[in-house]
């Protein structure tokens, strides 16, 4: 097999990972009818009235991340509020709507979502659904005239990302990807350290994002259902390491090699990989090593080493509790740049600023497209067993 044939075969495998079990328009998440996730504490009383000029958001999808992380943070935002909810579970919709003070007429099902176009109190939607639903629901939101915040990863394939961007442009509405770490103080401090060469010339970036998934099957956990998640841990957890490699280096890789593993006979990995490992080479000479797993002891770590110093983050990309240590010469300094939990409200307020003042979006759809292209290249390399050469936009050469 020639090198070109190997890459084409790998690309076909990557496309199959993304497209397998393609979802129909209006499809629901797996187990949409499930009750309230464990550990959710709803507000004891509705939040205060929004500030004048606040941007009203509709939350699409009332799953674990929406209820435990995103929705509680709106009270910390000075520019956004929850104006509507969208869910296929009527009982959950009623309970959450009451708790957050969302009026009954602003509670939508997936079937009557189109009616949200007439709700002028909703200016933006936050799509917090399985990845396989992002493209369809973004297009629906843009058709309704709303701005879109979409959870990461942006979509299952580059072609879906391109559809979303095109829909945004047709509607003349904003599209932002929920890359919260760009608004998290520790990661922002790490970006500043590498950008100002506090470590000297950057030489090595190492990231590992792993945890051990409990007993599950694709029918009970959407994160291991290929049609809804893609290839598995890379899209879900490893994307934080991929992002860190890019925003710490400030470069796009020119070449990468990867491997992926799926154990036989384990129902958790009937459709997705258990482990993915990647090595990226950047034009400056920097090398990034990225590891992610659904079947190893938990770790959330980023390390960068330069010619004169190093930085370590462990945890690196958590919802809270992150750390940052700078080492230069014999000096070792723990840095405390701020409260990690501000990342959520800061991210929401960033989209509000883009809507109100037209400020550039830090994490636009084009960034989401770039990352999905890189993940497609990673899967192509893993399938072919060979390195892949990349163009500056993340697409594969040859």
What's a concise summary of this model?
With 398 residues, the chain is of the alpha/beta class. It has ten helices and 15 strands.
Structure description:
By secondary structure, the protein is an alpha/beta fold. The protein is built from ten helices and 15 strands. It has helices at residues 3-19, 64-70, 90-99, 134-143, 158-171, 185-195, 226-229, 233-249, 342-357, 365-384; strands at 55-60, 80-86, 107-108, 124-127, 147-150, 175-177, 202-212, 255-261, 275-281, 287-293, 295-306, 309-313, 324-328, 331-335, 388-389. The chain has a nine-stranded mixed beta sheet with strand order 14-13-12-11-7-10-9-8-15. A six-stranded parallel beta sheet has the order 3-2-1-4-5-6, sandwiched between helices. Helix 1 (3-19) packs across helix 10 (365-384), helix 5 runs antiparallel to helix 10 (365-384) and helix 6 packs across helix 8.
List descriptors.
single chain, 398 residues, 10 helices, 32% helix, globular, disordered N terminus
The level of helicity is 25-40%
Cα end-to-end separation: 14 Å
Cα radius of gyration in angstroms? 21 Å
Catalogue the unreliable spans.
1-28
Order of helices and strands: HEHEHEEHEHEHEHHEEEEEEEHHE
Classify the beta-strand content into a percent band.
Answer: 15-25%
Based on secondary structure, the structural category is alpha/beta
Give a count of the beta strands, DSSP E runs of length 2 or more: 15
Mean pLDDT, nearest integer? Answer: 93
Total helical elements: 10
Report strand order across the widest sheet.
Answer: 14-13-12-11-7-10-9-8-15
Shape: globular
Largest sheet: 9 strands, mixed
């Amino acid at each position: 097999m020639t090198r070109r044939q190997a890459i084409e075969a790998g690309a076909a495998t990557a496309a199959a990972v993304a497209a397998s079990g393609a979802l129909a328009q209006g499809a629901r998440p797996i187990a949409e009818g499930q009750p309230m996730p464990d550990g959710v504490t709803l507000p004891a009383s509705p939040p205060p009235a929004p500030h004048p000029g606040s941007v009203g958001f509709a939350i699409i999808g009332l799953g674990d991340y929406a209820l435990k992380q995103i929705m509680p943070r709106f009270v910390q935002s000075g520019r956004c509020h929850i104006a509507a909810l969208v869910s296929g579970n009527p009982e959950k919709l009623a309970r959450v709507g009451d708790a957050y003070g969302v009026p009954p007429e602003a509670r939508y099902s997936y079937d009557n979502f189109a009616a949200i176009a007439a709700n002028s109190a909703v200016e933006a939607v936050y799509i917090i659904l399985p990845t396989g639903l992002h493209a369809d629901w973004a297009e629906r939101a843009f058709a309704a005239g709303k701005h879109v915040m979409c959870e990461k990863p942006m979509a299952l394939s580059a072609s879906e990302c391109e559809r979303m961007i095109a829909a945004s442009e047709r509607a003349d509405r904003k599209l932002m990807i929920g890359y919260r770490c760009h608004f998290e103080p520790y990661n922002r401090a790490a970006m500043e350290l590498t950008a100002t060469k506090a470590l000297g010339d950057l030489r090595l970036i190492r990231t590992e994002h792993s945890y051990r998934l409990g007993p599950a099957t694709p029918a009970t956990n959407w994160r291991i259902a290929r049609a809804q998640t893609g290839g598995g841990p890379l899209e879900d957890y490893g994307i934080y390491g991929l992002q860190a490699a890019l925003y710490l280096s400030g470069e796009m890789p020119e070449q990468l090699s990867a491997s992926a593993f799926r154990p036989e006979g384990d129902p958790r990995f009937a459709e997705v990989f258990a482990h993915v490992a990647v090595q990226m080479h950047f034009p400056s000479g920097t090398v990034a090593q990225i590891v992610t797993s659904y079947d190893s002891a938990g770790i959330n770590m980023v390390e960068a080493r330069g010619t004169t110093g190093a930085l370590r983050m462990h945890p690196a990309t958590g919802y809270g509790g992150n750390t940052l240590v700078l080492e230069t010469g014999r000096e070792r300094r723990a840095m405390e740049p701020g409260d990690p939990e501000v990342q959520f409200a800061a991210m929401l307020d960033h989209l509000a600023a883009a809507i109100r003042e037209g400020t550039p979006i830090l994490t636009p759809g084009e960034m989401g497209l770039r990352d999905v292209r890189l993940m497609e290249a990673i899967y192509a390399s893993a399938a072919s067993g060979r390195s892949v050469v990349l163009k500056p936009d993340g697409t594969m050469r040859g």
